[in-house]
Amino acid sequence: MKPIVSKDSIVYFNEDCYTALNSYLEKANHSTIFILVDSNTHEYCLPTFMSKIEKSYSIEVIEIEAGEIHKTIETCSGVWNVLSELGADRKSLLINLGGGVVTDLGGFVACTFKRGINYINIPTTLLSMVDASVGGKTGVDLGNLKNMVGVISESEMVLVDTNYLGTLPAEQMRSGLAEMLKHGLIKDQTYWKKMSDLSKLTTEDLDLLIYDSVIIKNEIVTIDPTEQNIRKFLNYGHTIGHAIESFYLTHPDLPTLLHGEAIAIGMIMEGFLSHHLLDLSKEALSEITEIILQTFPKVSIPKQYEQEIINLLIHDKKNENGTIYFVLLNKIGEATYNCTVPNDLIQKSFEYYGNITT
């Protein structure tokens, strides 16, 4: 697979990953290399990664706890302190080996430590391969508000080695499919059709779907790196989805939802809004609902919590001057950004999802 070139970074795939990495490390002459892992990737991914480095370098490993709940400024502070204690300087390199939490948080740590050191993302989950590690968004959560603190700054390179997917539990694999389905819905009807039947998916098929998904996202972020216009398309399903994810993350009586599980709900609800406010047909809404529910089982959202979730929408990063903006669909493969939605229709989208029979 040919490398995908973005504005300030390059995404390499599988067999090209370590050739590119070793060439880069040899030429860059970094003072120290730090590898950020979580407790899972330390055990399951780090040994493989270390075996791919051809020459001897000064390398230190920093481990954080796994899980979205640890994607905080407090965790960043711990990593900053360790970097400082181990003598990191502005010629140091941080390699982020992990899922979206590691790549988002690690990128933010790198961009802010000593006003910025180089970093490389090596995504190890499907979600981070097609979304979190591409496009330069870095950051952490603020309480239960997703990705409230961060910067946009691309890594030196992204290495997508799909062999790491063999370390994932099924629910983590499924979570990544949500962003891939989203890419089809907002930009490419043909890709959506390819994603609509995963029952006979082979490893080679998955590699190609990941590659195409990265191309779709890269085309958007290259045109609009700072999310002034069309990069907002990538937030389809996220306005409601992030609010649901945040609420479930911190509520003691509710299960934690993976990012993709929450975004899947958001895409169905925002599909409902698209049908009522734009030109998305009833047939297309039914298709979106059916395809997503084939992969993501319906989640029970207790009615007494709906208004609290809706109240979280005001914190969405697309909002301006207190106005909540949505990305909605004109049709499958074509989106519109900066859409406003009446509050009563948002409530009806919860009713639509709740009334779905499976």
Automatic annotation (TrEMBL):
Transmembrane regions listed in the UniProt entry: none
Top-level class of the enzyme under EC nomenclature: lyase
GN (gene name): aroB
InterPro entries per UniProt: Dehydroquinate_synthase, DHQ_synth_AroB, DHQ_synth_fam, DHQS/DOIS_N, DHQS_C
Cofactor requirement: Co(2+); NAD(+)
Ranges for domain 3-dehydroquinate synthase N-terminal: 62-174
Organism: Aquimarina hainanensis
A Pfam family of this chain: DHQS_C
Described function: Catalyzes the conversion of 3-deoxy-D-arabino-heptulosonate 7-phosphate (DAHP) to dehydroquinate (DHQ).
EC number from the UniProt entry: 4.2.3.4
Domain of life from the UniProt record: Bacteria
Descriptive protein name: 3-dehydroquinate synthase
Record key words, sorted: Cobalt, Lyase, Metal-binding, NAD, Nucleotide-binding, Zinc
Location of the 3-dehydroquinate synthase C-terminal domain: 176-319
An example Gene Ontology molecular-function term: 3-dehydroquinate synthase activity
Range of residues in the leader sequence: none
